[in-house]
Amino acid sequence: MPTIRYLVLGLTTRCNLSCAYCYHAGLERGMDMSPEVARTALDLVALGEGPLHVQLSGGEPTLAREMVRYVVAEIRRLKRPCTVGIQTNATLLDEDLVRFLGEHGVQVGVSLDGPPAIQQRLRGEADKALLGLTLLEKMGVPFRVTTVVGSENCGQLSRLGLMLAGFRCARGIGLDLLVARGGGCSGGMELPDPRILEQEVGSLVRLLAAVNGRRSVPLRLRELDLVGKALSGKRGKGWFCHACLGESLAVHPDGRLYPCGQTLGDDRFEAGSLSHPRLSRLRWNDPRPLGSPDCPGCPLEGSCPGECPSRLYYNRSSRPDLACAVYRGCLAALEGEGRQAVSL
């Protein structure tokens, strides 16, 4: 059995929002993970060696808050060193849950796609999401933001960075390029223009450099950190994620298994179930390197962070070069401002 280092528990298929591009759109709704399924999943990965990260996902996992508490408690019995995180839209956070997350060291990720007007258009309930951020700030719980980048918000990334600069507990931004699956391929939002994307990522990097000069804890951009590691030779073998190595496991509420959260519920990637696992199917046999015509001579040639294999699979008929645009934006900002100025 491969050693699983990244475990995604889909605690529920329920969600209180209807995001325009949701890649789970059209899949089964209204199913929650049982304690038995969660415990069996944890038992399956408990025998591995080395550190393990458990990510609580959905749907909207805070709709199954008793399962959040249960899983966090169960993780304590694992003998492996383990971290736990939750990805939430933040609209249902209250003081009791935020206190619990903070006291138990749960890494909080918030799905936020832009300033309020953009957030309202793409996800809805923007006012409640901002209240959730404010509550995290008030209670001193650090959080990171994940932004799905498409045509609607591609030109607003620096405005998002400026908004987050006012939150002392904000720790970082990660850019998830739109996936052409579910709502992402039904016209809810289009893939971004690579030229606009490159320019806006560069603007965001420069903005964060200026903002971080006034912050005690920097607001980091995940993609800039990846580029920095690649340029310094610390990136390793260039695998984009644990799924490329068969070290990632995503568990559906009913116990079915998949390589990652993005493939959850897609029968083409099912790797059996908790009762009959087929873990040999977890590894992407084709990690699909970017292979852009611009690779020769690129400063990242040979050490490029690469791209999400599932995203390349789902977007294969459209824009395979969008990750390149993100990395070029980071590189251009580095060259223009100097590496020290942007605080790698």
Beta content: 5-15%
Shape: globular
Backbone CA Rg: 19 Å
Cα separation of the termini: 37 Å
User: Whole-number average pLDDT?
Assistant: 90
Identify the strand order in the major beta sheet. Answer: 7-6-5-4-3-2-1-8-9
The assigned structural class equals alpha/beta
Helix content: 25-40%
Low-confidence region ranges: none
Structure summary, number of beta strands: 9
The SSE string, one letter per element, is EHEHEHEHHEHEHEHEEHH
Largest sheet: 9 strands, mixed
Q: Please, how many helices?
A: 10
Jot down its keywords.
344 residues, nine-stranded mixed β-sheet, 10 helices, Aldolase_TIM, S-adenosyl-L-methionine, oxidoreductase activity
Give a written overview of the molecule.
The protein has 344 residues and is an alpha/beta fold. Helix 2 links the parallel strand 2 and strand 3 (82-88). The radius of gyration is 19 Å and the shape is globular. Strands 7-6-5-4-3-2-1-8-9 form a nine-stranded mixed β-sheet. Helices cover 32% and strands 13% of the residues. Its cofactor is [4Fe-4S] cluster. Keywords: 4Fe-4S, Iron, Iron-sulfur, Metal-binding, S-adenosyl-L-methionine. InterPro entries: 4Fe4S-binding_SPASM_dom (IPR023885), Aldolase_TIM (IPR013785), MoaA_NifB_PqqE_Fe-S-bd_CS (IPR000385), rSAM (IPR007197), rSAM_sf (IPR058240), Sulphatase_maturase_rSAM (IPR023867). This is Radical SAM domain protein. It comes from Pelobacter propionicus (strain DSM 2379 / NBRC 103807 / OttBd1).
